[in-house]
Amino acid sequence: MTSKNRIQNGEIIASVDGSLYSSQTVFKCTYWFGDKFHVNVQQESGDYVITLRPMPNANISEGELPYYLQKLERDLVDFHLRDIVNNETGSIRELLVAKAFSNGEYDEAPPGEISDPVGFAPLV
To answer: Using alpha carbons only, how large is the chain's radius of gyration in Å?
Structure first.
């Protein structure tokens, strides 16, 4: 994001650096503003320009727009971080889901005896 973010003529206009944020991040973030704003996302020179125009029935005052601009900026960072975490942990999540639905196919026998599952008993 840049300092180009502004409120102009009753609309929120935000410029998002396309080299830092993916289109998936931008659209996941802006989706949640659709209940109160008409959302427009355009791509210009590799960057995204987001325009949020309050819907008439949303009853959003001009004084509330700075709050929503800050919320948009925070949400973009939040969704970007979620994508990073998802990319870093995706394979682990897939393994856990596969294990959960494997019906015991990949279960290993636990070490130790049933009477001593932790293995505290001295070996004889």
So the answer is: 25
Q: Which structural domain range is residue 35 located in?
A: 6-100
Contact indicator for 42, 26 with CB cutoff of 8 Å: no
Q: What is the pLDDT along the chain (124 residues), one digit of tens a residue?
A: 446 899 999 999 999 999 999 999 999 999 999 999 999 999 999 999 999 999 999 999 999 999 999 999 999 999 999 999 999 998 888 888 888 887 766 566 656 566 666 666 666 6
Which DSSP state fits 109?
P
* Total domains in the fold of the chain: 1
Strand partners, 78: none
pTM here?
0.73
Residue 51 lies in a domain: yes
> What CA–CA distance (Å, rounded) separates 43 from 40?
10
3-class DSSP assignment, residue 75: helix
